[in-house]
Amino acid sequence: MMRISAGTAAVLGLKKIRMAVIPTTAYLLWGDGCTRRCAFCPQAGGKKNGADRLGRVDWPLFAVSELEAGFSRSGEAGLQRICLQGVWTGRGIPELAALVQRLKTVSALPVCVSAWIDQVREAEELLQAGAERVSIALDAAAPEVYAAIKGGSFERRLELLLTCARRRPGRIVTHLICGLGETERELLALTAELQKEQVTVALFAFTPLKGTALSGRRPPEPAQYRRLQAACYLLRTGLVPFSRFVFSPEGRLLSLGLSLEELQDTLKDGEAFRTSGCPGCNRPYYNERPGGFIYNYPRPLTAAETKEAMALLAAGLDGRGEDGVGKMAAHH
User: Fold this and answer.
1) From CA 175, how far away is CA 30, in angstroms rounded?
2) What are 178-205's pLDDT values in tens digits?
């Protein structure tokens, strides 16, 4: 059996639901009840009552044969890739590798696998099975936050990620979550380091979910997330290096190294505020409630949405609003 995101199931004709935005990636979830203990995850600690939840997305259960029939019947249906996520149940990577091989027989779409990989050879096994990319999620951007939220050694996890990235340039992905207790400087310094190593970085907003250890924590403020989105975009596109960013002593981002006018011209297409990560991944409502604030837009922004995002960005930089942005950048 396989869990399939509700949106993916609808695209493949396995479920009838109304969707405001259609997923451009087929999201699959293998395994129930993760034995890891990430404090933000409803599956942590082997919880069976959260097996059908990950992020804000529902994951109904289907037979693998139904998934294969869905691909056969619907073709690619506008999908651009498959994202296979595996929870850690102690059975290891071979099951996922076999599943990648099976998926490649029914679809020509590139496959990304996101799983708890503990050794370089496990990433290699997945890539050799046919995965285009492998995700080794850090989630937390600072050692003390990682220890508290996920448990274990941040340094060891980062070393594994970088070793895999150097062996397989451009084929390793990671996730970073804003709002777990890191400073903005820590998250952006890590992002800059990873992108220099050709690691694809997907930025998420912390999402409090019922039944998790962090259910009472607030999500990041919209202005903070827009600052980080813009900064990550400038790093990802090579338009501004990390060295030009200005931070407060507490690690809050004050300037992106561009004037307000330059920022408005550079970010006018709204791309900075869309879902980041693998090509073709839009993750509709993974961080959001329908009708609520949209952290990662799963589609092109309207002119009004871009204007609103830019207003939040301008008001948040250097704490003094639009005039302060221009002054800070000019002084820098």
Assistant:
1) 18
2) 999 999 999 999 999 999 999 999 999 9
d(CA 329, CA 257): 5
Cβ–Cβ < 8 Å for 318, 325: yes
Give per-residue pLDDT as tens, 270-312: 999 999 999 999 999 888 877 889 999 999 999 999 999 999 9
Please name the amino acid found at residue 100: V
Three-class SS state of 47: coil
Give the residue among 115, 84, 93, 113 at the shortest CA–CA distance from 2.
Answer: 84
Please give the Cα distance from 295 to 275 (Å, whole number): 8
Q: How far apart are CA 280 and CA 22, in angstroms?
A: 12
Look-up of token digits 């779409």: 109
* C-alpha to C-alpha distance for 150 and 37, rounded to whole angstroms: 6
Classify each residue of 236-248 as buried b or exposed e, where b means 16 or more C-beta atoms within 10 Å of its C-beta. beeebebeebbbe
Q: What are φ and ψ of residue 84, in 5° steps?
A: -100, 115
**DSSP E strand stretches across the chain:** 2-4, 25-30, 53-54, 57-58, 61-62, 81-86, 111-114, 133-135, 172-178, 200-205, 246-247, 253-255
Question: Residue 29, SS3?
Answer: strand
Tokens of 246: 């200005």
Helices (H), 129-198: 143-149, 154-167, 184-196
**Residues with Cβ within 8 Å of residue 119, at least 6 apart in sequence:** 160
